Amino acid sequence: MNATTMQANTRQDSATAKLMEQILYEVKRVVVGQDRFLERVMVAMLAQGHLLVEGVPGLAKTLTVKTLASTVRGRFKRIQFTPDLVPSDLVGTRIYNQKSGDFSTSLGPVFTNLLLADEINRAPAKVQSALLEVMQERQVTIAGETHRVPSPFLVMATQNPIETEGTYPLPEAQVDRFMMKVLVDYPTDEEEYVIVERVTGPAVEVMPVATTEQLAALQGECRRVYVDPSLVQYAVKLVSATRDPARHGLKDLRKFITFGASPRATINLTEGARALAMLRGRTYALPEDMTDLVPDVLRHRVVLSYEALSEGMNSDALVAQIMAKIPAPARPLEHEKLVA
């Protein structure tokens, strides 16, 4: 690589880092705290994945996604899932025009850049499947015509951990299509004080700092972030341990697992490490980029047995035991030189 190419790459990396910083700065002008949640939203967006979020109402889930859409000049839509929802309410339908005698296509709210599916577990399985199909295929077929959703496209589905009466739990096979399941907790006392001040004070005007085209370019750059083969092998071992714990020296865990994670988990760990490294201003992934995401990527993919539930074991505790047994690879030598 010659000096000119290196300088061009350095300028590009600097411009990318500055743009990411501007996006995060604008969102944090509105959203107080929730740094980890916002980081996961950005990781999902850069890695072209989708998020399943669990948290009680009022924790700025909607505000975060809506504000992010404003900063990148993207379209934002919110669907409140209810038991009477039908698939056409999401994807759209054909409408007959009596005057012209023709049918026209009315596209549904899934045709947006950032979609918030609020309380996805309150809608019946048929509606859940319709949304999950769009997430996977990124297109909808209505009356034989295929319509692609805009790019970029991010779905954030929320689940309410309270008031579970009348809900339809997502099947394990469909939950697997979410890149991560993120748990959102209450803010600290200090953060809540700032939240009250900000909400009761003058409204903050969000400034658009990027375009959807620039965001798509960032997604392309994310795919070029270097992931060492040892890191990919680490992801393979972690996911393999959820399927066959005995092979990795964890035979005591076998009775707690009904089904382990699919290859999508390995892919999502690798793509997520790329995106997190890019957010942290690097063109290469480090072990901590992957280890930080392991609980979020695996917690919804490991199906626990009745024995695990009876003993009070949850998927986070199980994943923690696997991570304690399987060590992360050492940092690359190049990074050690840079630190030194």
From TrEMBL:
Keywords: ATP-binding, Nucleotide-binding. GO terms for biological process: regulation of DNA-templated transcription. The keyword ATP-binding applies. GO terms for molecular function: ATP binding; ATP hydrolysis activity. PANTHER family: MAGNESIUM-CHELATASE SUBUNIT CHLD, MOXR FAMILY PROTEIN. Belongs to the MoxR family. This is ATPases-like protein. It comes from Ramlibacter tataouinensis (strain ATCC BAA-407 / DSM 14655 / LMG 21543 / TTB310).
